[in-house]
Amino acid sequence: MVIDNALINALGLGATALSILMWIPQARSTWQHRNDPVRLAAISETTQWLLMACYLLWGVFGIASQSFWVAAPSVVAFPLALATVVIVRRGRRLPSAIGTVAIIGTAEMIPVAPVTAPHPIFSAERGTTADVRPRDAFTATGAIPILA
What one-character-per-residue DSSP string does 14-62 give? Predict the structure, then answer.
């Protein structure tokens, strides 16, 4: 089967275009979240290094075999992977935007209301509420503060 040279070039162009287009979402996400170390933690630096090695090998192979379309994606993808590694490393050195906020300050006193009446707590072994006398009940030792 003989394939026309124009068809081979069209296939190479399509493959190169898809290889370059697959980087656009990753590059856009990395760039948008470049100052957010939490979001950048989802990007694997090891994967980026492996992709750079892969594209470097494909680029060398394309040059050695004199196939422009094999080497062309490496011209775009290798620098993008390198830029991703640089951005991820820089972003991981940034201070995290996530922090803790104290609900109650240490200097703030929590008001405790006096217990007005005993609140019985019943045991399953002692029977039903009709069988329990006040002397058999346990009482709460203080109010439970409710933070609203």
Answer: HHHHHHHHTHHHHHHHHHHTTT-HHHHTTS-HHHHHHHHHHHHHHHHHH
